[in-house]
Each structure stands twice: as structure tokens, then as C-alpha cells.
Design goal:
Blueprint: H1 21-27, E1 32-36, H2 39-44, H3 48-56, E2 60-64, H4 73-86, E3 90-93, H5 97-111, E4 127-132, H6 138-149, E5 157-162, H7 169-172, H8 179-189
Parallel strand pairs: 1-2, 1-3, 4-5
Length: 191
């Protein structure tokens, strides 16, 4: 079975690609970039080449190094508020999943009224949430699932609970990842 994946219109990657960051911001008609990362990555300075590239290209930037490991609605709103206060017209996620999740949600709220969960019921696309019930953020998936099911397209939403799993268990403990359920979901959603 063939799968088609739609994503962003443009991804710039490869050795030296970060040097093009200022040009990419300008191509988006931006001049003030808000960089979102987590405290651990910022502490070791992995975003420094990005900061240097933006500065060299004449793009004003601000670093937000407060993305939480498991973003909450409050932390997403805080990020959004900081980006608005800075006057950001471009937001750049730098790091792992949590920083990128925070970035994506904050970018929605930069041009729409919050809170972010206000929009969950408007998602027409199929959504599968896979969460361990031992994760301290499990409530977030439960609440999100209920909002999705109450929305405009409830029949293509699924919550898969992995008993006893924490947040990070689902990164690499392949014996507990529900690949069968994930495969079945994709087969149905993409048919």
C-alpha cells in the first residue's frame, strides 16, 4: 500500500543550510525571528550558529529557551505572549519534539486568539494520540481526545493508551509501542 505524506511547502536542510536562515526569514517577509528551544539545548548553545546567521543577515532575533519537555497549554501561551511582546513575525523551532510542538502551537496563536485547545475541535484530519498512562502529561491527551471527539470530525480520532508507560518509554522501547494499532490507523486514514 502506498502512503502519501503532505507537509510544509519547503524544508531547507543539509550541511551549511543554517547559513541561509536570514534569507529564509526574509523570504517569508519577516524581520524579527523568535527562536524557540528548550533550556538544555540552549545551555549547551546548539542554537548559536542560528543566532549568528540571523545576526549576520540583519535579522533581529530573540531566544526563548523555556520550551517544556511536555508542553502544557500554559507554557504554550507563555511562549506566544513572549513572541507577541517581542513583535515576532517569524517563529523558528529549534530542537526536539517538545520545542517543535511548542513552536507550532505558538505560531497558531500568534495570528489567532487562544487558548490553543480552542482549535482542537476544528481539526478535520485523522488524529491518533498514543500516550502512556504513567506519563505526568497523560491528562493532556485525554482532554485533547475528548475535545477532538466533540468536534466537527469525531469518527477519525483515536486515543491509544499504553499501560504503565511514561512519556519517554514510547521513544525507544519498541516492545511496548503499539505498531499494530498505528499501522491500522494509517491504513484506514489514508485509504
Amino acid at each position: 500500500m502506498a502512503f502519501v505524506h503532505y507537509t510544509v511547502k519547503k524544508i531547507v536542510h543539509g550541511l551549511g543550510a543554517i547559513k541561509e536562515a536570514a534569507n529564509e526569514v526574509k523570504n517569508l517577509k519577516g524581520s524579527k525571528a523568535f527562536i524557540v528551544t528548550d533550556p538544555g539545548l540552549a545551555k549547551i548553545g546548539v542554537q548559536k550558529p542560528l543566532e549568528e546567521a540571523l545576526t549576520a543577515g540583519g535579522v533581529e532575533w530573540k531566544l526563548y529557551a523555556e520550551a517544556q519537555l511536555e508542553p502544557s497549554m500554559d507554557s504554550i501561551q507563555h511562549c506566544t505572549d513572549e513572541a507577541k511582546a517581542f513583535g515576532a513575525d517569524v517563529i523558528i523551532g529549534f530542537g526536539g519534539g517538545s520545542a517543535l510542538d511548542t513552536t507550532k502551537a505558538a505560531s497558531v496563536l500568534l495570528s489567532n486568539e487562544g487558548p490553543i485547545d480552542k482549535y482542537f475541535g476544528e481539526i478535520e484530519a485523522p488524529v491518533m494520540l498514543v500516550h502512556g498512562n504513567a506519563a505526568h502529561s497523560f491528562y493532556f491527551s485525554e482532554d485533547t481526545y475528548e475535545q477532538l471527539k466533540a468536534g466537527i470530525a469525531p469518527d477519525n480520532k483515536e486515543l491509544v493508551v499504553v499501560p504503565g508507560a511514561s512519556h519517554t518509554d514510547l521513544y525507544d522501547q519498541v516492545d511496548i509501542i503499539p505498531f499494530d494499532k498505528i499501522t491500522a490507523f494509517y491504513e484506514k486514514a489514508l485509504a
